[in-house]
Amino acid sequence: MALFARLATLPGLPWDRTVLTLADERWVEPDDPASNEGLVRRTLAPALAQGARFVGLKSRGAVPVDGLAETELRLASVPRPFDLVLLGMGDDGHTASLFPGGEGLADALAGQGRLAASVVPAIPGPPRVTLTLPALLQAREIALLITGPSKRAVYDAALRPGPVEEFPVRGVLHQAAAPVTTWWAP
How far is Cα 20 from Cα 52, in angstroms, rounded to an integer? Predict the structure, then answer.
C-alpha cells in the first residue's frame, strides 16, 4: 500500500514510541499473500527497524474463535485510546471485517466488552478476526480512506440514516465517540 510505504519514510516520526496493530486480519499465516500483517511488515519495515512495535491479530488457533483469547491478550498490550485508527471501506459498505450479512457481525458490532471478534464474511475467503466496533471507536481520531466512484456512492448511502447491519461503516460514521475524517480519491 503506497500510504504505508510513504509513512514509513517520513522523517521525524517517533517510531520508537509507536505501537501498530490492525483493524482486522484474514485468518492466514503472516507469510500468506492475503495477510494484512504481512503487508504491514513489508511496507513499514523501515518503521519497524526504527523501533515501532507491531501487534498482530492472527494467533495459534485453527480458526479465529479458537484464537480469540490469545488475540485479546495481545490487544490488551496496545495503549488506548488509539491515537489513530485507519480504516478503508468496501463496495458493500464493510469496514474492518464488519461485513453486511457476515456470520458474527452482531457480536462484532456489540463488542460486549471485548476488543476482537471472529467473523465469517458472506463473501468467499478465509474467516477473519476484527476489532469490535466499540474497540475501533476507542480512538482520538479515525481516518476513513475510500477510492473510486462506486465506493463514493456507497459512502453517500451510508451517510443516510439506516441500519448499521446494511452498511456497517455506518457504525463509524454515525457516532460521537471519536472524530472521523474521510479521505476520498476518485
Answer: 7
